[in-house]
Amino acid sequence: MPTTPPSLRPGDRVAIVSTARKVTREEVAAAVETLTSWQLEVVLGESITAEHHQFAGSDALRRRDFQHQLDAPDIRAILCARGGYGTTRIIDELDFSGFAQHPKWIAGFSDVTTLNCHLLTLGHESIHGVMPLLFGQPGGEAALESLRRVLFGEPMTFSVAAHPLNRAGTATGELIGGNLTLLQNLSGTRSDCATAGRILFLEDIDEYLYNIDRMLVHLDRTGKLRNLAGLLVGHFTDPHDNAVPFGQTAYEIVATYADKYQFPVAYGFPVGHEPQNMALICGRAAQLTVAAAGTHLQYL
To answer: Crossing angle for the helix pair 209-221 and 250-258, nearest 10 degrees?
Structure first.
């Protein structure tokens, strides 16, 4: 069973860093204000304001910054400022041995799916949730509150309206998942997570419909879908199509492959690149119930 980091308490220090795309101090100002209102002390890493082309500093700088926050005994949680691209460039050179002795919450999504999966392969829970760049977005209040509740160890359950593509059933298993593109890119690497017996959640943004299909073909061919306990399908935001239409929506594409199996499936789960991006604990055992009245997810 994965290790759960200690819950935060008022007065704890938390760090904001960027493992991927560059970000300014102004862009995380709302996050600093919010975290301070939660009675946390905020430390900005050197990657915040650093710049190397599209990245938040060079690979060496981003790696050094993240490693420093991993090893710093006074830092109780690390929030990744934003996604984009870049985490996979530094993941293999990070040393998690000190972190393993003194785990702390690491939170983010999108490109940070790399960290969520890598930590789970090492036996640690982490948070797939809203990032500092997006703390002030309109409509994101519930997502932000869900992140606060997870960080401070408060109970959290989810109830979601029924969707016509849902497949009813009940499943238990550890939560795993995140951005579909990253999950496909991690296949065969040391950050690749086993999915058998687990509840997988998926989301993505700005992808062509044919590429969503191609990635799901890959996951299916590698056996990632075959022995799932259950599947949560989140936001597939701003999909693109070709001049000759693909002929299916993103959810219909997912259903093409999910329908080959018998596990329960819930569509429209509030996770992904939209304001309703509820914090999920990667590695935490949960029970998924999909029924005619809707979907319910609770941790065990």
So the answer is: 20
